[in-house]
Amino acid sequence: MTSVHRGQTYRVRSKDLALHFQQMRPSHQLFYALSPMATSKAPLTHLKDLRVSSYQIPALDRIPNTSIQKKPLLIYHSAFHPGTDASTIEFHLSLIGVVDPQWRYTMYSTSHFHSNTHEVLSIASGKAKLCFGGENNPKRVEPTVEQGDVIVVPAGVSHRLLDDMDGGFTMVGSYPKGKHWDMCYGNEGEEEKVKQVEGVEWFERDPVYGHEGPTLNV
Q1: Do the beta carbons of residue 116 and residue 183 sit within 8 Å?
Q2: Positive or negative, the Cα torsion across 133, 197, 102, 83?
Q3: What is the per-residue pLDDT across 82-137, written as a single tens digit (0 to 9) for each?
Q4: Cα(99)–Cα(152) distance, integer angstroms
Q5: What is the residue-averaged pLDDT of the chain?
Q6: Is the distance from CB of 195 to CB of 155 less than 8 angstroms?
Q7: pLDDT value at residue 41
Q8: Is pLDDT above 90 for 57?
Q9: Which residues in 137-211 belong to E strands, given as ranges?
Q10: Residues contacting residue 54 through CB under 8 Å, at least 6 positions apart
Q11: Which residues contact 90 (CB under 8 A, 6 or more apart)?
Q12: Which of 120, 77, 66, 96 is nearest to 205 (CA)?
């Protein structure tokens, strides 16, 4: 991809796109976001064709799940086109500007949740069975997700890996700008942390689609 700064043109490797965008000055980011080269590369399923699964999950013991904010767990099925790699996902999310990509990894195999932020998990490779809500919760959700899917995990919703089905499951983990996740497990002593869930602001723009999208319809 070619980028232009102050009249100079140079080529950016695809694996550096997200970092390149994040390091731009705000004025350069605005120029880039409005340019044809930014808008013509979005490897997304059209919003009208997107299939979305939505789940409300009741609390389990000290795990609040969706019981506090009533915002659902959302799965965007095949939001990114087949073959879209982690770098391209990171660049797209950075361009939309709602969340910051912060890591690439699998999902922990221990149930945990975040009390201070929502989480956007974009599947960059592989296929896995996950558990949301706590493995002992009769209302838990155990979806199989794969490359191209995006999961919006509201603050308070427990999640864990059940089965990495092909050994190559990798996600891009992203959080609303300025947010850094904590770790909670539903243990005694976490009550003050859980109180934070109520005050976590929901998305004003969709992290994947921007001014439209599933997070704005819940």
Answers
A1: no
A2: positive
A3: 999 999 999 999 999 999 999 999 999 999 999 999 999 999 999 999 999 999 99
A4: 11
A5: 86
A6: no
A7: 56
A8: yes
A9: 144-146, 150-153, 159-164, 170-176
A10: 72, 73, 74, 214, 218
A11: 17, 18, 101, 172
A12: 96
